[in-house]
């Protein structure tokens, strides 16, 4: 098992303060193309830079949505930049204070979160003291509470498989955007993409609900899945054999079952810097079945050429597939 991808607390604070400074400048100052180039260069320096900036930016958007729901009298006479400036200034522990306001957690807890992240194609397993295991799939970002009294994880991005030792006195809770998943003794998978959240239960039970408490909690058992998007919530029941295919990434494999080529390309692209591009709508609608190594784009390209009789071209880091 590889060691956790963890950043030291001192370095984390410095990075988050710098990320807060960048975010303040971009939102409330005269932002130029030169400024954007400098920000892009800073983000490219380290994965940790991107993690910090992305988390603060996403959280600030959530905070502003919450603010919009408050009575107008509390904010009507205070310009947004002045209200947010104390949170985004580069003072000591500014990033921790901002995280506390944004994510609705106490200041001490914001400082007691450990960040973990995987690169594209990466895979990381976190072993907890109680025997629980948390597996991070490709391009995933999480924050895990170090508090032994509260077992809490924030999934900011990506896909995680949980094998949790249930403790009725200390439930394990996962926060994903506006939703919350509470362990009731189980193994479950959560995947968070932009505008899309999926929960699948392999064993045991979980409770799925909105963090705001505006919707009735849903009890999910083995085989249950929930898909939450902007258009609503969809609950389904799947055979456990089908759900096991969704965990094939643990073995470095992705499985397709009558899957359209545009979805195949999107799945491969999660795991690879070299991207698959489907060039036309007709090709995108073709379907395929099979099991492939997640990092072997070249093998899939040969299958597309030799089995599906498609044209395959290499253009820089892109493999373009067309009729």
Keywords for this entry:
single chain; 323 residues; alpha+beta; Jelly Rolls; Phage tail protein beta-alpha-beta fold; 3 domains; eleven-stranded mixed sheet; three-stranded mixed sheet; 16 strands
Note the topology.
Blueprint: H1 9-28, H2 33-45, H3 47-68, H4 80-88, H5 94-103, H6 107-110, E1 113-117, E2 124-127, E3 133-136, E4 141-145, E5 151-163, E6 172-176, E7 179-193, E8 196-210, E9 218-221, E10 224-229, E11 232-237, H7 240-245, E12 253-260, H8 261-271, E13 275-278, H9 281-284, E14 287-293, H10 297-306, E15 311-315, E16 318-322
Parallel strand pairs: 5-6, 13-16
Antiparallel strand pairs: 1-4, 2-3, 3-5, 4-5, 5-7, 6-7, 7-8, 8-9, 8-10, 10-11, 12-14, 15-16
Helix pairs in contact: 1-3, 1-4, 1-5, 2-3, 3-5
Give an overview in words.
- The chain has 323 residues and is of the alpha+beta class.
- It contains ten helices and 16 strands.
- The chain has three domains: 9-110, no CATH class; 113-244, Jelly Rolls, CATH 2.60.120; 252-322, Phage tail protein beta-alpha-beta fold, CATH 3.55.50.
- It is 34% helix and 34% strand.
- The protein is globular.
- Residues 1-10, 64-97 and 99-110 have low confidence and may be disordered.
Question: Strand share of the residues?
Answer: 25-35%
Principal-axis shape equals globular
Mean pLDDT: 80
What's the β-strand tally? 16
Number of helices: 10
CATH third-level topology of the largest domain: Jelly Rolls
Query: What profile does the largest beta sheet have?
Result: 11 strands, mixed
CATH structural class of the largest domain:
Mainly Beta
The string of secondary-structure elements, in order, is HHHHHHEEEEEEEEEEEHEHEHEHEE
The CATH architecture name of the largest domain reads Sandwich
- Report how far the terminal alpha carbons are from each other: 43 Å
Task: Report the structural category.
Answer: alpha+beta
Helical content class: 25-40%
Instruction: Please state the CA-atom Rg, rounded to the nearest Å.
Output: 22 Å
What count of domains describes the coordinates? 3
Quaternary structure type: single chain
As residue ranges, the low-confidence spans are: 1-10, 64-97, 99-110
